[in-house]
Structures are given as C-alpha cells and as structure tokens.
Write a structure and sequence with these properties.
With 165 residues, the chain is α+β, with helices and mostly antiparallel strands. It is 45% helix and 19% strand. A hairpin with a 2-residue loop joins strand 3 and strand 4. InterPro entries: McjB-like, McjB_C.
Length: 165
C-alpha cells in the first residue's frame, strides 16, 4: 500500500489538470518516447539536420506571450521526463522542447556543452534557450563549454523558406 501512495497522488494531480494540460502532457510523453528511440538508433549527424541551423543563435529577446508558452512547454517536458519508463535525460528533453516550441513558431537555440567532472572525465549536457530563459536543462549551464548550438528563427519553415537561410 505504501508503494501505491505516490501513484495515487499522481493520479489526483492528473485529474485536477485542465484538458489542454492533459493533452500537452500526453503529447510530451509520446514525443519523448519517439525521440529517445531516435537518439538510440540514429547517428547524431542525422538528428542534427533537424535541430536548426548549426552555429546560429536565436534572438536574446522574445515576446512575453511566446516566452510564457515556451516556459510552460519546458515545465511539461521536465515533469513528464521524471515519470517516463525510458531514460529522458537532457538531450531528449531539449529536443522534445525544441520540436514543440518550433511548432508554435517560437525562436530558440539548442546548446550542447561539456565540462570536466571531479575525476577529470567529460560530462556532456544539452539545454534549450528561448529569449533570455533556459527552457530545459538549466543546471548550472555556465559551467559547461558550448561545443555546438542549433538555432531556429521560429518562423514557419514551410511558408517562409527564407527564414532558414
């Protein structure tokens, strides 16, 4: 019975969410699973093609409405990632959030960084920035040396092809 208590608390929270929030959480859950499979099975160079323009930074400012929407997506990704039966660490979280903010036309930049740990080994990390805010992976990102970044202007790539150039 003791083991079921967290599950009951989670279910109680679930039923108090709005329908839109429940849909968002389910969308994030499915997307993290799909993207986790891609990260495991595909070479990174294939995934990188869809992350945006390499070496490009998105604007440091974003309008308040888009920033709030992006932060809501980031919170959903972070919460769902705690409960997935598969591993949903920083890279899966950042790509998931990137897909969702891009879909909403929000400019963003995904960063990949490294730092040394206490045993002189390398630790890799990925995070997503929208405007001035870190949306996913905000664990002392200033400690990491950025080795690659992928930016989006946040426009609709189908309608405005000039945005990706």
């Amino acid at each position: 019975m003791k083991d079921l208590l967290p599950l009951f608390r989670l279910l109680k929270k679930w039923f108090h969410l709005s329908r839109a929030d429940r849909c968002m959480f389910l969308h994030v859950l499915c997307l993290t699973g799909i993207l986790r499979a891609f990260v495991i099975m595909l070479p990174f160079k294939w995934i990188a093609r869809y992350l945006g323009k390499q070496g490009m930074n998105s604007p440091a400012e974003e309008n308040v409405v888009k920033l709030e929407a992006a932060q809501k997506i980031g919170r959903a990704v972070e919460i769902v990632s705690r409960y997935t039966p598969w591993e949903s660490k920083c890279m899966v979280q950042a790509i998931t959030a990137k897909v969702l903010v891009r879909k909403r036309g929000i400019a963003n930049t995904m960063y990949f960084g490294v730092r040394k740990n206490k045993k002189n080994g390398l630790v890799a990390h990925a995070w997503l920035r929208v405007g001035p805010a870190i949306i996913t992976g905000n664990c002392s990102v200033e400690e990491f040396k950025v080795v690659s970044l992928f930016g989006d202007y946040g426009c609709d790539y189908i309608v405005r092809k000039d945005c990706s150039e």
